[in-house]
Amino acid sequence: MRALFYAAVFALALGGVQMNAQEAPPPSGPSPALTPGDFLDNVGKQAKARWRQLYREAPPATPSDRLRVAFMLGALIGDSYLAQKAGDSQQFKNTNQDLINYCRVLGMGEKATPGFLSAAKAAEREDWPAVRQLVSESQALIESLLNDQRDEDLASLVELGMWMRLFEITTAIVTNDEEIVNKTLCIGSVPLLNSLKARYDKLEEATRASDTISKLGTVLEVLQRHWATTDGHPSSELVSMTSEKLAYLMNRLTQK
Q: Which residue from 116, 119, 207 is spatially nearest to 160, judged by alpha carbons?
């Protein structure tokens, strides 16, 4: 349902832009309704994106902290989108297996695995449009299953983990491309960043107070505060700070 919602909103927004093209130019950055695939496409069109150079080490064994597992699961979904953009079937299959393992820890292995296997077969055929669609469907299914289990906070953390990993990727691209003009590609847009902070704020108080997840809240708050004052023209210092904050967060929450 989430994937269908994103697609519907994007279609309506695109139609509105086409109808009013002479009245106002289209927005330069993605809106909160854009899918992760659209988000990376937007970056790839404006920057020199060497996708394969942005891979990271395989995640550690699944931790006992379910909150952290959910965040790490989301980050792995971000890695799936990265492998899809790179057109790397082996990397995609490796990430897919990690996703299956993390889903099992959260009690979703049986229901989520068929979608992952279908995506792996599509990757073997190098049918990347199908892979992208299947990744999106798996993401929506995971969040739906968690909500059905009344694990709403875990569902939110999956989405937040995915976007933090995507931001880590795009910020690295901006940092490595000295000629890039649109540095807002780091976080897509302030409205997108605001929407993620709003979702974090809806987590249960106990979740936000946990040692692990509180770090996520701190980073989101810092990024939101600084990017809101850029007026669309972030400084190189802000880009560097964003890169450092995201690297710290992802290292603490997904690699240790």
A: 207
